[in-house]
Amino acid sequence: MIAGLGNPGDEYRLSRHNAGFMAAMRLIHDHGLKRPRRRYEGRWVEGEIGGSQVGILMPQTYMNSSGDAVALAARRKHIPTERIIVIHDDMDFPFGTVRAKQGGGHGGHNGVGSIIKQLGSDAFCRVRIGIGRPQDSDEDPREWVLTPFDEPEEDVSAIMGTAAACAEAIIAGGIEAAMNRFNRSEAEGE
Predict the structure, then answer these.
(1) Among 62, 66, 130, 185, who pairs with 111 as Cys (CB 3.0-4.6 Å)?
(2) Which of 17, 88, 106, 109 is catalytic?
(3) Hey, which bits of the chain come out as E strands?
């Protein structure tokens, strides 16, 4: 299962915090999957990605309760935690950076924290989409993540394509292969 995190509603549709939704929609589009339908407290669609049957979930519970939808879908579909990929925004990386990871803490991301709490485990894979931090040190990061990207639309589209490719790499070759491909250092010419 791939869970793309975000907030429901048009006012958040293009916000930085909805990077997970955007990457999930990119996967749905690129693989010609059907339109997601309401299930498991979210928008859900199933189809084939990387030679595997995959469910894509976009929780509609708001970010801080994302774990409710992810845990419900995982229970109902009998998906072990290790077979879940969570795609989410990450302020610790500059815009344009995509990183793969398995396990670990929530790093201050309330959606990831909710998933860890509801699953009772942090063993799921993550695709972290760098959104950077506000330039103005007086700007509240909680407000900043709810504003639209400043970068050009084609740059936002490109990072969502990279995040989708990272999720595909995890499905096709496992987390180690995805980390080797996407977690290069800046010195290696990223």
Answers:
(1) 66
(2) 17
(3) 2-4, 37-39, 42-49, 52-59, 85-90, 98-102, 125-130
